[in-house]
Amino acid sequence: MFRRNFLKAAAALGAVSAVQTAKADLLIPGAKRPNRPTPNPSEDQPSFILLETFAAQSTEKRDELLKAFDAKLIPERNKLGFDKVGVFYVDTELMKGDRGYDAAKFDSAVFVVQESASVDAILSLQQRVADEFEQFNVSDDLQYVDEEATLLQSVASQPRISVPYSNSERLLQLRTYNSPNYERNFKKAQMFESGELDVFKSCGMNPVFMGTAVFGAWVPNITYMLSFESDEARREGWGKFGQHPEWKKMSQDPQYARTATRIRNLFLRPSEGSQI
After folding, report:
1. Matching CATH number, 2-22+38-270, of 3.30.1300.10, 3.80.30.20, 3.40.50.880, 3.30.70.100
2. 1: burial class by Cβ within 10 Å (0-12, 13-18, 19+)?
3. Which pLDDT tens digit goes with each residue over 158-207?
4. Is this structure's pTM higher than 0.70?
């Protein structure tokens, strides 16, 4: 499943490459093309963020998968040069009452996040993890039954993945803003870059990453993750955000109308071994 998804992604990126640029130019502008793609960008260099969603058969299988990813996947990805690998699952209690939440899809899901300097390094991951994934789904009693992959390119004002908190009670919030077309998607990105991201930070809503989708579900979209010390801090932060005068001004600005016509919101908890 991992290989199949990445082969599809590679084909899609190849089609884009044929129209717009040579394959070598898929590297972030300004990045040097190494003989062997190096995952980690410099501190101020924009990055590509790979978000994987693994669907387990039950919450029990999800918990097995979390332990297996902590023990095997994270160390293997670190060996490949990915220095921050996040593993998460949905806090189902916090999702109660959210009418847009797809419990059948996400209650038993495991999320994996990592970043890279280039598309080449992401695609080379597919080629170099054969041994890693031989450790999963080795019997008919599958640990996961499906996988989705989304590739994001970070926005300029949040170029790298950051880790604001590492306490065990921390809460991660993953949000996807789907736009009706790419013009509106670009405008939503501009909205974040023009002040909305700064309002987040001033309200104690610390971003882990923010990026526009290169491929994946719900395109075009902007997907971002926030980190909070606790759910109480999350509630306090969003309360401040909703009352912030700059946000009120931006939200009423007609140039930003219809930039996010569908929103997916997920409250996530980190696995014990998660590095984010």
Report:
1. 3.30.70.100
2. middle
3. 999 999 999 999 999 999 999 999 999 999 999 999 999 999 999 999 99
4. yes
